[in-house]
Design brief:
The complex is a heterodimer of chains A (about 110) and B (about 230). Chain A has about 110 residues and is of the alpha+beta class. Helix content of chain A is about 60%, strand content about 10%. The chains are: A alpha+beta (about 110), B mainly alpha (about 230).
Chain lengths: ~110, ~230
Amino acid sequence: MKKISKELIGTSTIPIILSVLSKKESYGYEIIQRIKELSNGQIEWGEGTIYPVLHKLEKKGYITSSWKTSGSGRKRKYYNINIKGEQKLVSEKENWTVIHQLILKLWNIEPNLI
Amino acid sequence: MEHRTEFNLANCINHWKSILLENNNMTIDNVTELESHLLDEIASLKESGLTEEEAFLISQKRLGSINLLTHEFSKVNSHAFFLNKIIPYIKGVLIFLAFFQIAELLIHAFYLFFKPAGIHNNSLNIASIILLIATIIVFFTAFYFKYKKQLFNFHYFIKIPVLVSIVVLSKIMNMFSVFLIVKNYMDIKNIKTLSYNLNIFKLTFVIILLIVSFLVYYKSKKVLKIAN
């Protein structure tokens, strides 16, 4: 199966993470598993690199984090989206929709560009 | 047949964590979070039938190389990176200051202890020089055994608040001891001699430190050259 380019994954990381967190609070490993599952394995990160992105989002005030202990006794850091993060997600959705529609239009008019 | 040592997951994880922490780009919190991820991944791979060793190796690979992780974390941890880098330098300077203050205090205490016994000034002078030389030897020997043989654990002594307290307290005690010597003995001549000895001691110490620095520098260059 063809993998998606690193550049495209890098650009889409923030809206993807915010979208996953908008459904429910989660931790790094679970977020990655969710994305793998939804993309049928086409999106594959160096898994550890999700954490600097999560920390950056936390620093910018889009998400909050807290350590919790799971049933098995393992400590996990859970991330939650907040109102600022929800607003960011709305603006990201608008941006991505614009790009998506533009590409669709271009390809419909000039299919040979595909 | 080749004998393989038994795989120990806890040891491997600890080793992996220690390498991550050595890189100065990560906080303990970051490493704990990555460890939690690694353990989740290992558990999942073991469920699908892999051995503990295989699960560890694959999980480590999926998480990303040490270089990749430290590079990515350095983008968000520039503050922690700066602090982790600067703390050893501050500790070095504080150890240097504390050492000089303690040596000075030793000399003053030595004088205050033996002067009332009526020991001749020349003997006091020679004894103070011997004491200072012994202090240098003790310092460098302790340093050698700590870092080369890893014998002593100075962990609690080389914390910044402890070092600052040692410097401040020994400075206050030094000022007080000079005051006692002048008040009790009006012995300006001997104080001058002690101070002269101390200056020679400081100079000797600095020269030894410079020589050690050059030796370490050239040795490190040689080792790195071989490694490359």
